[in-house]
Amino acid sequence: MKPETYLTLDGSKTLYSKEFGEHYHSKNGAFTESQHIFIDLGFKSIDKHGISILEIGYGTGLNAIMTYKSNEVNPKKIFYHGIEKFPISSETFKNMGYIEYFNLTDQESKMFSENWNKPHSISKNFIVLKQNIDFNDFVPQKAYDLIYFDAFSPDTQAEMWSYENLKKILTKLSTDGVFVTYCSRGDLKRNLRALGMNIKRHSGPPGKRHVIRATKQ
Fold first, then answer.
1. Could you give the 3-state DSSP secondary structure of residue 101?
2. pLDDT value at position 1?
3. Cα–Cα nearest to 13, from 30, 1, 28
4. CATH number for the domain including 98?
């Protein structure tokens, strides 16, 4: 079922999934949400020259693109691994407006939206692997320094947020590695603590009271 395009309050677009009854990003601002949670609280907090990132819920590719553009300021070696069960079409990606807003080249836009299931070098500092797979079937094979957890909400996809699914990725998170997400529910925090994570609640972007940044002890 093709998702519908929706204009958010900061002028950026998101998608609405009829199947899950949820938007891919905040209606109060897709760019604002991604910048605050995944870039400012996540990517910018990692002080390493080489960073391996896992995103659960690749979606439209917005978090990957914003990470790529943020990395242009003080370049680090990035391996970006995105997991997505329902990749959007190339046409839908083009309609999001990312190509124009982020001034992406044809090659860059294709690497973020096409060519799935193989790693591709978008630049000398950024490799992206977009994997079309159900998270329930995903078994991580390498270590990560940073996890972006951006699946649909626990109300819609409870299994995505289960202790078992969190455990299999957090066991692959490096010591002092960071997990960031828009969700701040009590059951999520209990699971994270049980898995050895040090949790800090932060103020959220517009329309969201709190978000979570957790560090592996």
1. helix
2. 73
3. 30
4. 3.40.50.150
